Amino acid sequence: MNKLIKTISRNKIGYEFLRSLNGLLGLTDRELELLSVFLDVHLEGTYKNKNNNSIDSPETRRMVINNLGITKDNLSRYIKMFRDKGIFIRQSKTTKINNALIPIIIGGKVVQITMILKINDNEDL
Predict the structure, then answer these.
(1) How far apart are CA 94 and CA 54, in angstroms?
(2) CATH code given to domain 10-111
(3) Contacts 24+ apart (CB under 8 A), 58-67
(4) Threshold 0.85, pTM exceeds
């Protein structure tokens, strides 16, 4: 088994986790930056309120617009692209980040990623 270890600061967990997966996701630097802000919002739980539990709620959108200086229209385009790629998924009438993209912190000190690449001998992919 191949094992690579990198030490990071706690406030960069979301970004570094997504960077590690970006070979599979194929996101641009800006898309990665935007998704990491949504992931940070999810990890902090600041998007949850009694009226709207979606990661793309108006409150979260305002927070992302203020943090990144992105326009409302561009943010909507990025959110649509995240949905199309399966990064954001609909569950029970709410939009959530795909669980595979949410880091699980083990013992408060480690985030482990298991990557499975299936080999298909019958087709060129």
Answers:
(1) 5
(2) 1.10.10
(3) 64/34, 64/37, 64/38, 67/37
(4) no
Domain ranges of the chain: 10-111
- Residue 116: band (very low, low, confident or very high) from pLDDT cuts 50, 70, 90: confident
59-98 pLDDT tens trace = 889 989 998 999 999 999 999 999 999 999 998 888 999 9
DSSP string, the chain: ---------GGGHHHHHHHHHHHHH---HHHHHHHHHHHHHHHHTTT--SS---TT-HHHHHHHHHHH---HHHHHHHHHHHHHTTSEEEETTEEEE-GGGS--EETTTEE---------SSS--
17 CB-side CA count, 13 A? 25
- Mind listing the pLDDT tens digit for each residue in 2-11? 777 778 787 8
